Amino acid sequence: MSVTPTSGTPTAPTSLDIRSFTPARNDSPLNLPYYTFTDTVSNKCHLEWKAPASSGLGGAITSYVIESSVNGTSGWTIVRNTENTNLAAYNITKSAGAVYFRVSAINASGVGTPSNVLKVAGSTSTCEGTMVHQNGVWTFFTAPRAVCYGDNTYIGWVDNRGVVGITKVNNTTKEYTHFDLADISNIANPDRAEIDDHDNAAVFIRSDGRITCYYGLHNDPGGIRSRTTIYPEDITEWSTAIVHSPANTVSSPNVNLPTCYSNPRLLEDAGMLLYHFRTGTPPKAPHAIVFANTQNTANPTASYNDALPLIESTIDPWKNQRPYVKSVVNSKGRVDFLCTDGHQGDSGTRGNGNGTSLYHFYLQWDKTAKKARYYTSAGVQIVNPSARGQQFPSLPIRPKHRGGSDPTMVWNGVNVRSWIWDIIIGCDGNPCVLFTTYDNGSGSFGYTNQRYMFSRCDGTAWITPVDITGANVVPSIQTIVRGVAVSSPGMGTKGVNGFPYDEPCYTGGCCFDANDPNIVYLVNTVVQNPTNNSDLLSTYPTGTRELQEWRTTDNGLTWSKVRDITTNSLPDIINGRPYSPKNHDGKIAVVWWRGPYAGWERCFNTNIWCASASDSYCNPSC
Hints:
globular
């Protein structure tokens, strides 16, 4: 007979928990643990724990054993033995309901004391999509975020390590590869460790099939950065980074640093690439535009002395606001712009009756004069008496709340503020737009009654905006992080781990199908208890944020839901910011990110997903 002394076995492992696919940096103040499945579709949870304080007299720990139970107190069964000393994965069927886990360390003396018991809830979540990157996110205004070219779709992102990259997805097989373009967190200051969803890459496909990505920090003090692939459609080899900055010029720049939100657009009639971006330090941060030669160069390059202010707000009480901009290429020589006259949080727009409004104008390239001219929605050329130079007599464009020859107002936000989401060219050749509206209320959290709105231009004027879903979408993105409830009705947080986020204007988001203006993808709040509407505003809402497809058959007068792309997502899983890749073939019609999200800086842990078009899709429908 032999006896194994109990004192020889290890003590209990500690801090058994569920972690994300890729943890944030070790110095991040928010590592985002959450008590739900990492992947709610496959119900694959990733367990993590800390080693025991003592390995016991039996020597070093050789392995761990994971056990599960249906009640957390008895009936423990072994589900996995692992030699990995700090991580293991366990698959749970979708119908499993609640499952309890514990883990014990093993050495030569035997199995040690079990860890804490972890309860994991089952999920019946379904999704028509495919996950193509385990760690990625993007902001509203850097675009294109995804482009279809040939048989592949290219998606730009930034992850929760502070790394900017690109993913290449085969449209048919959904096989994918990734490339890390830059560690954004270390560009300016290695100690800063920026982890920010504003930093994602914009993707531009050159005429020879090579790919250029534009990226940078949130308000990058160095300027706009770009890298281009060495070979067409190959993301494995890239040029060194080019920094478009005043440091590269001899003359004084027209536009000041820092920069944010790169938006490259090809203007074929001009033989040029143009890109627009925000510049300067808030609160005064106008939007600028650069025209760059794209012919026979290794990289499209431009310098800041070539840049001009595109949009700025100078009228009180909106003076020195930050305009936000979306754009779409209408033809070989035209680009349409949708912009705000400020940010929701700037002085003069929040909580005092002066909400943000929306405006439209377009650029038309004059091939004879070889210059860009700017026009209102009705085709009236915009002439600015204080324009900066004869070459650009319209600039800067100056949106304002009262009449004038500046851009055409799409939505007057004095009483009900607004925020832009997308712009596309309709079947008749005129622009269509998507935006959200909010009751102004009082104080920073007066953003109730959020609505997804559609409007289109008839060639002269804008039709009365239409409420797409006909329902309040609050809170489109409300989540819980480390047991701290997000109290805003939007997507932002307030005071999570000391970070005073306040972005109640955030919603799950909406976009047009890039090929079909009659299709909209949007994130809607699905109330799980329809008899209790207070669920939408409760601290721990029972509503979930689901990606849906909506369609119109009468030019936007009415809309109806076509399908649910996601269903039964867990309460702290966000389906956010859908985007339809340019030139898609229907095999990847929409991409979005999915996972915990509580704010734009260090407060996200999301995967990137894609979904095909619906069965009734035709390309295009007009």
